[in-house]
Amino acid sequence: MKTVRIVSLLFLAALAIDAARVAAQQTGSPASGPPPVTDPLAKELERCKALNEKAASDPSCEDAYKNSRERFFQPPPAYQSPPPHVDTNVPEPKLIKPDQTGSK
Length: 104
Prior knowledge:
By secondary structure, this protein is mainly α. The protein has a domain at about 1-25 and about 35-75. It contains three helices and no strands. The longest helix is centred in the first third of the chain and has 25 residues, at about 1-25.
């Protein structure tokens, strides 16, 4: 019975600590929002998003959508593996031949 009480208290303590952590994160800095957008294409896409249906007939939005698609579907650069790392401080392994007599 004593073990059950100890385990219960530990569980409740963990819940209290987690609740305090979540509350501290929520009351952190109220002005903290998403970081400012510095990419010009992202700024234009945000503007077009705010236009809603009018964005379909806006030429600058059409260009932004086209550039966004090109950027998204651009193939990744060719992968180049890093050169192998050879540690010169490690001695060469010595090969041991298996016992030819069959005894252990």
